[in-house]
Amino acid sequence: MIYITGDLHGDERREMIPLIEFEKAHHFTKDDVLIICGDFGFIWSDQARTSREYFILQKLQEHLSLCLDYFESAPWTTVFVDGNHECFPRLYSFPQKTWMDGQVHEVRNHVYHLMRGELYNIQGTTVFTMGGAQSTDRAHRVEGYTWWKEEMPSDEEYAHARKTLEQLSSVDLIITHCAPTHLEKRYFHRAPNKLTDFLEEISQQITFKHWYFGHYHETKDFDDHYTCLYKEVRMFKS
Question: What is the pLDDT of residues 68-99, one digit of tens each?
Fold first, then answer.
């Protein structure tokens, strides 16, 4: 089975409570896949600017490593698209491999980052992924320390995504962090950007059974085809 949830933000106290309850309520194997719609957050910067920050970050990295061990030991396989609050240099430093016909970064043996513009075949379900989003709080963050320009896709990543989709007319699942422009404007009252416009292009080009995204910190269904997830786990029924 495929299960989907929203942002975790590296927070095992609040955002992971539904996940822990979810684990108690079901029986899983490693063939079951949990997809996180961005802002995974358990891979964070280890760059310190002062000796005090260095000590704090050492403790943080030890804690985040234990959280990653939790996902590795979970009875399912955990995968995630990137959001805007990720440490991209560290995320991109993990080994790249092929998993379910698409490219991933291998964080642990059963924890994978689903790369941008990739198409996966997860037990007969086709899944297209396109992570990233534009941060609205960049003014309160420090570039290269708590914010990275790679939060938005590069021209090469857009080109790769278009190439992946050019021979397709439909997919089963689309997983992103932010929403296409028509949802961004109508329901979230945010100005569109290059990524949301690109997702809008995809929404007009490809038919799909369902599109899941996170980013907006709410759980809401938009017609029969789009769902924003936060603090809730959904099962995808093909």
Answer: 998 999 999 999 999 999 999 999 999 999 99
Taking every pair of C-alpha atoms in the chain, what is the biggest distance, in angstroms? 54
DSSP three-state, residue 145? coil
Query: Distance between CA atoms of 175 and 194, rounded to whole angstroms?
Result: 17
Alpha-carbon distance of 53 to 178, in angstroms, equals 31
Q: Which two tokens stand for residue 166?
A: 């050019």
Burial of 90 (0-12, 13-18, 19+ CB in 10 A): middle
Contact 111, 72 (CB under 8 A): yes
d(CA 188, CA 215): 11
Decide: pTM greater than 0.90.
yes
Q: What is the pLDDT of residue 50?
A: 67
Contact 27, 72 (CB under 8 A): no
- Residue type for position 5: T
Distance CA 130, CA 114 (A): 8
The closest alpha carbon to 71, from 137, 21, 16, belongs to 16
11 vs 70: CA distance, rounded Å = 13
CA separation, residue 54 to residues 50, 60, 61, 87 (Å): 6, 10, 10, 16
